Amino acid sequence: MFIPYDIANYPLNSNEWSFPFTECIHISMFAMSIGTIALVDLRMLGVGLRHQTPAQILKDTGIWTLVGLIIVVTSGFVIWASDPLRYYYNWSFRYKIIALALAILYNYTIHRKVALSASSQSIGGKLVATLSLLLWISIVFAGLFYAFT
Amino acid sequence: MSAAGDFSNWVADTSFFTALRESGLPYPIVMSLHLSSIAIFGGLILMTDLRLLGVALKDMSVTDVVRQTRLWKRIGFVIMITCGVLLGGAKLNTYYDNPYFQIKLSLLVLVGVHAIIFRRSVYANTEAIDRAPAIPGVAKTAAVLSLILWVGILSMGRWIAYFERPGQFGRPHAVSQAAPELPQK
């Protein structure tokens, strides 16, 4: 497979600090995006921020989720490019990318629609919130398991 | 060897931590739980700090944000610390003299100091902050210091894996296991 740049001279591989530095950006930004999504989910489950409706929380946190997701995906891309084939042939990474695509799609379609609706705290709403939490946490797990598989 | 070194070797050498370190699945699961609690608990701290700075969640009162996220921060904190103790204990013999590990623990102590210093003026005083015409400087100071401390802890935690002793080279994140054989290009 052709890689159109010299991996050995790729900045993340050619100095000691830029790889962990990028990882720190990646981790703090998934904390921001997943943390804000979790605020909406916990509210839909009826266990946090009860003074607000799920719709209010979603409107207040939406921009921070989006900014976090953009930076987390960008920094993830930068990390992936440090050793693209090694990531590509790793099953944990493959799961992560597929789950991430589904999670983002889910977050901006079903999850958003239900969170903004009047039935956001129904049994269905709780299922939607649980699936959201599980999906995002599984992506964190897969990101870490990459290093162990 | 120093007393700290003796103690660290003893801890890592206990049958419990040896089993955890040498386990196939539990070790990465504990590490994933540690990271997942950062995702939720760390995210809540970040949003609380941004609220205190007046940049995020402005439709909610400071009181609502601080009080209603408190329980979840506590739960996340307990999971995070528990997993952290397990991870640290399993490798304490190599961590105790790792400067990044030492800085991380020092910053965690400072988090406790931060909580004591700002408890009365900020975190237990949110109604007054909400009534004030502008967010008081002390609340913003608490938020900025909290951000610095937690980003520092997160960064030092990551850097622990990158500490190279004299005579030890390589990318530590890649050498924890043999690189898989890649198919021929």
Structure characterization notes:
The complex is a heterodimer of chains A (149) and B (185). With 149 residues, chain A is an all-alpha fold. In chain A, 75% of the residues lie in helices and 0% in strands. Chain A has one domain. Chain A is elongated. In chain B, 32% of the residues are buried. Chain B has 185 residues and is an all-alpha fold. Chain B has one domain. About 4% of the residues of chain B have low confidence. Helix content of chain B is 74%, strand content 0%. At the A-B interface, α2, α3 and α6 of A face α3, α4 and α8 of B.
Find the structural class of chain A using helix and strand composition.
mainly alpha
Determine Rg of chain A (CA atoms, Å).
17 Å
Count of beta strands of chain B: 0
How much of the sequence lies in strands of chain A comes to under 5%
Topology as H/E string of chain B? Answer: HHHHHHHHH
Say how many strands of chain A there are: 0
Biggest β-sheet of chain A: count, sense, barrel?
none
Regions of chain B with pLDDT < 50 over 5+ consecutive residues?
172-178
Low-confidence stretches of chain A: none
Biggest beta-sheet profile of chain B: none
Oligomer: heterodimer
Q: Roughly how many Å apart are the termini of chain B?
A: 49 Å
Helix fraction of chain A by DSSP (H/I, runs of at least 4):
over 70%
What percentage of residues of chain B falls in helices of 4 or more residues? over 70%
Shape of chain A: elongated
Mean pLDDT of chain B: 90
> What is the average of the pLDDT values of chain A?
94
Give the chain pair forming the largest contact, with residue counts.
A-B, 44 and 45 residues
Number of helices of chain A: 6
Question: Which overall shape of chain B is indicated by the principal axes computed on the Cα atoms?
Answer: elongated
Order of helices and strands of chain A: HHHHHH
